[in-house]
Amino acid sequence: MTNKLQKKWMIIGIIWTIPILITWFNINTVQKISKSRQQYKFLQQSKHYYKSNSEIIKSTIKQNENLYHNIESLQIGLLSVNDYLSNLSEKFDVIIPHKIEAETLNALNSNMGSIPVFFEITGSFSNLLKYLEHLEKDHTYIKIVNIIFVITELINKNIHMELNVKLKYRYQIDTMNTI
Question: How far is CA 90 from CA 42, 67, 77, 80, in A?
Answer without folding.
Answer: 55, 25, 20, 15
